[in-house]
């Protein structure tokens, strides 16, 4: 099974910009992996922020954006707010007979 | 609005089975699948598998093959996940989520804590 990798932790200053990345052990991440990004705060269920690389849900703050960057999926937060401190998970879909879906290990984002 | 409401917390002994339910509302149940995701204490998210609510097709994560069964009841818009031969490392919060494509979650349930302890 493929392994999806994320930075274990990142820190951003309030108002600052940070980019989280999501890589695949099988090679470059493409739009065909349909990258998703989720935010999870302690004691809460995950919330889907970004789907299919760069699409936002109605509840996704405008300061979050998704893209492909250097062979990885990326989540960029521009103008970080204290309430953005959370764990962020990416997810990639792998085609083939099994069609598996794999989560990354998560990035703990601290706003400090 | 889309809602997924899960059954309550469970405590089970090793070797037992657990069945978690997930009642969906606010959308056409058979137009989407349901994915199940679990999270052990202090750990990340683990995709367990997916079921099509349209035709019942399933795809289970390889490590759970043979121990997990996912089903749906379209008459009540409810999905079920049964996990058998429970072990202590199955202790986790289990989430259902409405799924698009081959199991990508968009709307999430509130989670169900399953504790496996003797």
Descriptive key words:
heterodimer; A: 112 residues; mainly beta; 7-stranded mixed β-sheet; 4-stranded antiparallel β-sheet; B: 118 residues; 53% strand
Which oligomeric form is depicted?
A: heterodimer
Q: Outline the biggest β-sheet of chain B.
A: 7 strands, mixed
Helix content of chain A: under 10%
Tally the helices of chain B.
0
Number of strands of chain B: 11
Number of helices of chain A: 0
Describe, in short, the structure shown:
With about 110 residues, chain A is mainly β. Chain A is about 0% helix and about 50% strand. Chain B is mostly beta strands and about 120 residues long.
Report on this structure.
The complex is a heterodimer of chains A (112) and B (118). Chain A has 112 residues and is an all-beta fold. In chain A, 0% of the residues lie in helices and 50% in strands. Chain A starts with a strand and ends with a strand. The model of chain A has no long low-confidence stretch (mean pLDDT 95). With 118 residues, chain B is mostly beta strands. Chain B contains no helices and 11 strands. In chain B, a hairpin with a 5-residue loop joins β5 and β6. The interface between A and B is medium-sized, with 24 and 23 residues.
Show the helix and strand layout.
The complex is a heterodimer of chains A (112) and B (118).
Chain A: E1 4-6, E2 9-12, E3 17-24, E4 36-40, E5 47-51, E6 55-56, E7 64-69, E8 72-78, E9 86-93, E10 101-103, E11 107-111
Parallel strand pairs in A: 2-11
Antiparallel strand pairs in A: 1-3, 3-8, 4-5, 4-9, 5-6, 7-8, 9-10, 9-11
Chain B: E1 3-6, E2 10-12, E3 18-25, E4 33-39, E5 46-52, E6 58-60, E7 68-73, E8 78-83, E9 92-100, E10 104-108, E11 112-116
Parallel strand pairs in B: 2-11
Antiparallel strand pairs in B: 1-3, 3-8, 4-5, 4-9, 5-6, 7-8, 9-10, 9-11
